[in-house]
Amino acid sequence: MAALRFFFYLLMKPVALGMAFLGIAGINAPYISPVSWWVPAFAGLFMPLIILINIFLLLFWGFQKKWWVIFPLITILGNYNYFVSTFQWPWKESLRYAKNQTLTIGSYNVEGFYWIARNEEQKPIITLVKEYHIDILCIQEHCEESNIDSITLKKRIGLPFRKVFFNRHTNWANFGISIYSRYPILRSGEIDFNSQKNCSMWADILVGQDTIRIINNHLQTTDVNPNRAKYEAYRSVKNWSGQARTLVSILEQLKNNFQIRAQQAAQVRTIIDTTRYPVIVCGDFNDTPISFAYNYIKGDRLLDGFEKCGKGYGHTFNGIKSLLRIDFIAYDSLITGINYRSPHLPWSDHNPIIMNLSLP
Question: Which Gene Ontology terms cover its molecular function (predicted)?
Fold first, then answer.
């Protein structure tokens, strides 16, 4: 038993070094393009796990009263930005506002309307729009029948103006993203990623006397489910080499997706930099708030809605134990954030995010 404890003690040293390396790499994830080096992006995605292991190491080496405690301590403190982007003080006060002086914007990955269509009698989307008084709604993973009529469309969403970008077409349906608005849409454009799953679009919307630009995004999907199913199949028959090969394939796929999102972010950033109107950026980025893709898009011009107005633990994706915030609303620094909400709804694997904003 004593030999086992000694072996565990020795094992904690390389673990502490490895977790410190990944934690420090994650600190740099927003600033290092995964095209140049992909390890920080990987660390940023798995930061919840890295932080949990470092907390365990902090307690372990603290009880041992060894100087190794420095490694997890520095790693945890160094990831201050991760904690701010994930958790906000639950009892902070929202700004006071009059409803007729604000704009309410929502963003929702509806998972192809799959669960919503199965519960159409409850009118989930139009109920969401009415309950939260949503003025502009950005939808990702929009799936729509090819032969649907305009009257049915209006009843389904409850907002009079819309623009869509369908980048995949079949005989029975179209797939893509959309922007719905209570206010007139003056013009719109597509940001084509040469993908049938992912794309972005923008729309200039006239709100009163002001024009604002909304950019709706659905960045590169992680899409590791096929490899994950293969890994589970190998594990069920205790095929260790098959599991190892599948894990390598998953890492390679994650690396490629990080790099693709970085390239997509550059396309979106070009639109932001050439826009003279106040900008609001929404969507499913399939990456965390400490990722390169999100921070490159946000830049110095935009503010993160959750960090400014959110409360408690911020998560928008219901998979992976609800640990990840991968859906965002970021707005121009000329705009004032009032409040931020992300209600848990059973209609998708994502939760919607909703913000009240005051225009300049």
Answer: catalytic activity
